[in-house]
Amino acid sequence: MTALPRATEKALGLVIDLDTCVGCHACVTACKGWNDQGYGVPLSDQEPYGAHPSGTFLNRVHSYAVQPVDAAAQIVNFPRSCLHCADAPCVTVCPTGASYKRVEDGIVLVNEDACIGCGLCAWACPYGAREMDAAAGVMKKCTLCVDRIYNENLPEEDREPACVRTCPTGARHFGDLGDPESAVSRLVAEREGFALMPDMGTKPVNRYLPPRKKDRMQEASLLAPLLDIQATGFAGWLDRVLGKM
Amino acid sequence: MGQPKVDTSPKVSDEVKKTTCYMCACRCGINVHLTSGKVTYIEGNRDHPVNKGVLCAKGASGIMQVTAPSRLRAPLRRVGPRGSGAFEEISWDEALETAVAWMKPLREEAPEKLAFFTGRDQSQSFTGWWAQQFGTPNYAAHGGFCSVNMAAAGIYTIGGAFWEFGQPDWAHTKLFVLLGVAEDHDSNPIKIGIGKLKERGAKVVGVNPVRTGYNAVADEWFGITPGTDGLLILSLIHCLLAAGKIDLDYLARWTNAPLLVNEAEGPEKGLILKNAESQPFVIDRRTGMPAPWDGAGVQPDLGAVWQGHRTVFQHMAERYLSPDYAPEAVADRVGIDAARIRGLAAELARVAFDEAFELPIAWTDFRGDRHEMMQGRPVSFHAMRGISAHSNGFQTARALHLLQIVLGTVEVPGGYRLKPPYPKPVEAHPTPHFVAAAGKPLSGPHLGYVRGPENLALKADGTPWRIDKAFTWENPFSAHGLMHMVIPNAHAGDPYKVDTLFLYMANMAWNSSMNSARVMEMLTDKDESGEYVIPRIIYSDAYASEMVAYADLILPDTTYLERHDCISLLDRPISEPDAAGDAIRWPVVEADRDVRGFQSVLLDLGARLGLPGMVKDDGSPKFKDYADYIVTHIRRPGVGPLMGFRGDGTAEGRGEANPDQLARYIENGGFYQAHVPDGAQYYKPWNAAYQEWAVATSFYETPQPYLFSIWSEPMRKFQLAAEGQGFLQPPDHLRDRLKLAMDPLPVWYPPFGEAARAEFPVHAITQRPMAMYHSWGSQNAWLRQIHGKNYLYLPTSIWEAQGFGDGDYARVTSPTGQIVVPVAHMAALNPDTVWTWNAIGKRKGAWALDAGAPEAVEGFLLNHLISEVLPGAGRVSNSDPVTGQAAWFDLRVRIEKVGPRERAEPEFDVLPRVVPKGRTRA
Which of B1, B5, B8 is the best residue to mutate to test the A interface, defined by the most A CB atoms within 10 Å of its own CB? Predict the structure, then answer.
């Protein structure tokens, strides 16, 4: 069993805006592309051109239907990846110490050299955020692009996770959620960001911004006709409307 | 135990090469990372005007595209029966000589016997020029089965279109309304824009039968019934007119609303009234007398009546004020409550007028009147195939432009902005050229904008010049041709037989054709003499698509990272409203197969055929390859395919060819921008500063100010012909539909598919998924894990009425055919509509996929349900009667539950493989 740090210096994580995410999957393949050649073993694919294609992804997007009581049904696109929990059960369950939470930034990582592929961590994670790589037999998970965010070989502006850099709608934000003054913390405060399934007690770091209220448009008095066209006819309307010039 | 040490600064790659993506029509800038000469990562280019660093799921999966096992490897010649998949590899020299042997006699005797159609071509100014030099009238790209309604209705109304030709003023707009926009066209720019609006809390409204993608994040969703968008729009116009919430000043100054409509019976009835100098005129409010439409200081009177002739404005207002367009009168047909229609109209009016603002930008209009400010109206629109792929799509798109116009929101701050070289009026476009003569080039470009019946591509006997019957009475404004009719017409010998069908990058034996199963038969049918009805088929593609099996000669293309291309101002550039832009692709990796870029191959063919402009005086090839053409081809004096770094490297727009041009583009990240000068950013059609800059930058030769066409004179000319006026007369069976469809004011009529309504009560449409549109995604190892199987989504009403459950299939029947397909429930859907993702379904054996691939077993197409011709005589195409746009979404079906199944129907034989089945990923 592996210990969690008592505290971390930062709580790096993602803020994902569900009001803005159009479900385009850009973050999914940008993540796959970066991490296929990044931290740890590649993200393998099984039967990539076959009858049952499958592979390792560290980030996936799901779409859910929501049916409000008095309004039209809605679709919410929901990107899902590791939430870098403060009380990460995937870490404490790890028998070899391979899973750990970094003291300096709170990122939950897998030390692949120490991973025996037992899969306990994936069972322990209530969010389904970990995927066993079928080719390598080691556990893969979101690293918050630990090999990008500090990478001195990248221009400063690119030192953010691949999913954030690529997101076309800007629905993904990265920063220190442990710092109440950070841009991401302020965004969470403004938009009433929430933690996913807080009752699981894992204290996730990532936050989701809720969809704004929809379908609220009401008939407005602004459109009061200029006059009763039926009564005055087209000529009356024309006089009235052109009188405004 | 200590924390492991992580290398947080690994080397990313050996080098980064900047080129242009090719997964769709966005043409985003990409940084291709290479390690040991291999592509290891692709990300968006932050400096690029289109995508500003972001990249979609397709672009970010490009690495799987470049390494796909479905890539063709060498030229192929068919050796067994067509469709049998029996090919032999041949050398390029053999392949090219074969093509020349087929084409040369055609050029010498009857150039129209070559039909050259180029699908999802991004080099249309080049391929069109090639076809022109060959001399065949039979050339077009894929716009006819995509969205020519959108393009043409825009050009005929505002001088520019939706999709990549314009965009909302993202920085200022406060209300953005999307109509019929699934999840594409153009992809990243729309996403970036929506993100900006969301960031500042601006409102997004989605009008679409299906609530996915952009419509899922819309603040307001109108789940409209397919084919009724025009009726909704005209009802909104009705509400705005009735309430007087229209921009009268804008209408008077910038549109043809104050021009007079000729009311005299006879051949001029309904045309714009002209003076003795054949110029339209207005009545000046200051004098009550006629005055030039473009005269300085003139105040056009919208309410004028002159010698019994009334203004366009009055005709317009009278029509749409009719109670026929009241929300209560249209609500049932559009599937939206009258109160919500009024609510939307009120919101449009509130934002356009109550939140109007001014930008302190002084400018001078084409009349010479100076303005100290630019009036802004922060309402903007975007629309795509959902409204246009119907047989009333052209008029619907026109109606939407009219809505923008009455709100005064086109080319103003906060509204819809065109991207250079647009705005550009019909008059600045060519008319179609089509007269084929043995051994001669065509006299001009094939595709153009028809002004009246005199521009139709009809022979003296009234038969069409073109194999696709473009520019005929069936579809007079078919500015993009009708690629979807080429194979059926060639097969039917209607209007004539062709000898060689030459196709590029279009999957006509599968998802790009209506009635795909029948089209496959047309491709293999033989005549009485045992010869193929379509004698020869040459096809170029980079991948083993379904179409490959049906060709006689395959010219394998490169992938997008192995080629030169230019994204040119001469066809579809990458401009922004504030800057004209063009770009290149260049080989960032060398092809590891015996393949060649199609454009270079075309130049080689052209030289071997001795086509004018492609050979020197001594008969030797003029261009080494496409890269050489991009740099040295001169289209008009000083104007070539690329506008940047011309002459000595500093000239922009106009200048001599610069041998160093491609190197300069590469240095600059693969693109070039020419920035619109200060004071010229808005009001472009009327802004003298913009017009001057446009001439300097080569978009046109003289300033082209114009008025927006609320009343379309070219359309009225066709109506007049249908009424019996004039020498050129339509066939009688088309008179009524011409009178209806060529109405000079936007009109709504039920889509032709509605004729089947009683027996087939449900609308069936497709959308393309953001992560995989264009058919190429299926071979992509990553993308097919996201969309490897499609369902037919059923609304709650149908799902519950027939007791559908998970795992069920349904039989879907249309007047044309039947399919059996997997279904799923979706509540956020118009109650009379079913839909699915387009082009997920694949034929077994194609694209190097396993024959048991989900795409091929459970995946399906709706294409089998759609006839390419309308019921009745005359083989009239199932297309918009104005432009010939394929009316994909007119489809009506009946749904019946069949219970659980494991495979979709129809099932086709496994296509023989032209490349080995893919096994492992690169």
Answer: B8
